[in-house]
Amino acid sequence: MQAAPLICILPGNEALGLGIASACGGEPCRPEIHRFPDGEQRLCLSASVAGRDAVLVCSLEQPDAKMATLHFAASLLRELGARRILLTAPYLPYLRQDRAFASGQGIQARHYASWLSGLIDGLVTLDPHLHRIRSLSQIYTVPCVALSAAPAIAAHLRPRLTRPLLIGPDRESAQWLQPLAQQLGVPCAVLGKKRLGDRQVQIDLGELPPPDAGLQPVLVDDIAASGATLLEGLRLLRARGYPPALCVVVHALCDEALDSALREAGATQLLSCNGVAHPSNAIDVRPLLAQATASLLGTAPAPQASLPCPLCGKPVGFSSALEGSGLVCPHCARRLVLERQWPGHSGEMRWALVESGDEDEP
């Protein structure tokens, strides 16, 4: 009988790690991390590892500060004989750097994916910031499950808003905005954005309708880092005559000072998902992440089926847990990505051909 999976919880991820352990019947453990006076670290695991599946639990905001610990933890699990190593990382970094924007630069999304793929055997993450890279399978060489926070956000907003108008700050946000609007059955609009620098953006009203009595504007984006996009969006909404807006993000990577700045700019509140710890956390995505991790481990049922390859027409097996991920067709060797025919709904799924992304600004 195979031993229960080992859930290796890195610092700051205790609640998510314990939820994953409960979902998959795993044994939670926390590596002991000793810091030497010169800044180096030494990890030690007291749990038995040999022959067991292991799950590393670590959200990767502020990634540079976590890379060494993550690398050593994965390497230690491998050295101690782990059968398979998965990583559950609610936030996956470096995806915004998906092209070389100037001479002398590289595509750091690929560099990071190459490094991380060499450490692990599978990945679970939440709403990765995909733009020119359409699917994680284009840059990661391990199975990836890219979850959507839309169901959790919809469940949180539904009883709290009567006539919301969901607003995305740029066309890139449509991939998060539209599924959420469909699940709530409410209208949405997308603004236009041009990024001028790390903390400066230019936004136009795009397709935004005129304000209507009773409409509750809700600004929705995947990431709040500097907060420049939300602040500029709020400024435009107020100038257009809209009432104060609610701001909702999946990953709050900003400091606490942004909350007061948003309120001064015309926000009622900032709400975020709890994959990344932040004072604005209000939307619980931990059960979603835990269940997906259990499914990837094979300790929770995942329906199996096959769908035709859009190129050769032959059947290609899939699991619904792999939505947003991809593989190579075993018949024609074309790379495919699994997607829903109607994003945001529980309807039919299909294989789509992976194509190159566009070359717009980040």
Automatic annotation (TrEMBL):
An example Gene Ontology biological process: purine nucleotide biosynthetic process
Enumerate the CDD domains for this protein.
PRTases_typeI (cd06223)
Tagged with keyword Nucleotide-binding:
no
Tell me the keywords, alphabetical order: Kinase, Nucleotide biosynthesis, Transferase
> Which GO cellular component does the record give, naming just one?
cytoplasm
**InterPro entries in UniProt:** Pribosyltran_N (IPR029099), PRTase-like (IPR029057), PRTase_dom (IPR000836), Rib-P_diPkinase (IPR005946)
This entry's Gene Ontology molecular function terms read: kinase activity; magnesium ion binding; ribose phosphate diphosphokinase activity
Does the record carry Transferase as a key word?
A: yes
Domain Phosphoribosyltransferase as annotated: residue spans: 148-280
Q: Which SUPFAM superfamilies match?
A: PRTase-like (SSF53271)
Domain (Ribose-phosphate pyrophosphokinase N-terminal) spans 12-117
Family, according to the entry, reads as follows: Belongs to the ribose-phosphate pyrophosphokinase family.
Name listed for the protein in its UniProt record: Ribose-phosphate pyrophosphokinase
Q: Source species, please?
A: Solimonas aquatica
